[in-house]
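Meet the record:
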Amino acid sequence: MNNCRIGLALGAGCARGWAHIGVLRALNEAGIHPDIVVGTSIGAVVGGCYVAGELDAVERFALELTRRKVLGFLDFNFSGSGLITGQRLRDVLNERMKDANIEELPKRFVAVATEIGTGHEVWLSRGRIVDAIGASYALPGIFRPVAIEGRWLFDGALVNPIPVSVCRALGARYVIAVSVNSEMSGRGAVIPQLDPLLPPPPPEPEPARDEGGVFTRNGRAVKKLLQRQLFGRTDNSPGISRVMVEAFNVVQDRISRSRLAGDPPDILIQPRMANCGLFDFHRAEEFIQSGMKATRRDVEDIKREIAARGAVPTLLARSA
């Protein structure tokens, strides 16, 4: 009898989260199958697809992404509470999981989100899995928040970036946590005086306007301008998305360190992904390989520690 429930906490990290696919592949090939899967943001996307039996599908989707396709998913939203509606990505998830409910899945799954206004940490453990995933990755200011049961929810990384505590609360005795932001962890020194590093960039040219002050560039030029504003200009000055995500990252890093110090996992897997941008979704193959390598480095320790806690029959049965 298996006396050790295994929990897997998949952390936030935008495009770096494709590494979670590699982590799951390596764990499964070693005969380690988590009983409880909890994800935040991109961790909820990959974790939810895994529990729903759609890991192959999400991996194919990730590997087929190119820069052009990534831009194609940016359905700009000029009248709501986010720059991107996120509907195109949700449509892809709907194609695979349709109206699947979390409580009907073969394993326990929870997506972590944050409630607007109260700041409550919300554990989404029932209802449509696509809605729960969408709420968990709704990056503030970038994606439109999601309404579930009368509450407006957005990215859970603001409250619980690596949800070890949720795994513990659900009864996991052994928790494997995955941080895909290990290279970013610990950033933030105190600089008492700024010394100049680069000359100031030249001023941006004013956009073309007609006599009535209406923007007159054609649709293609407008799209290029939006992309530049979102992702930065050629002079390396940050775009809107980089500013927002970097600010979010600073908060997330400090919350992660605090939460992990108070409730550490039994093992922390940290894929090495230096020089990987948070929006480099087109680099999935590289990120997946990083996740597999990091997990394989630790897999023997994981198997030994799980076995010591009484999960030997589970490991043998599922690896057979």
